[in-house]
HTH-type transcriptional regulator YodB (Bacillus safensis), 106 residues
Amino acid sequence: MNQSDMCPRFEKAVELLSKRWVALIVFQLLSGQQRFSEIEAALTNLSGRVLSERLKELEAAGIVKREVFAETPVRIEYSLTDMGCSLAPVFEEIAKWSSEWITLES
């Protein structure tokens, strides 16, 4: 793959992953399948409306899988697809980099 083929793909990937809350949602789902309320509780300051929008976008992109269980009440769980799970090394490297280089202001 030459550089001209990579730029549009790289740009699209960065555009998707840099959208507000997307990286944190993916990072949260790296720990396994979760219900909407569990994701929402883990990511404080994230509204349900925005979480719903981002999950739909991630599902459309093939990163998140939405599974509906025919129970009463209906149970819906979200998990990463193989494509989403393949982001794990990327997030591990970001975590390592941030531990070394990012300081939090008090």
User: Anything to note?
Assistant: The domain at 20-101 is CATH 1.10.10.10 (Arc Repressor Mutant, subunit A). Strands lie at 34-35, 64-69, 75-80.
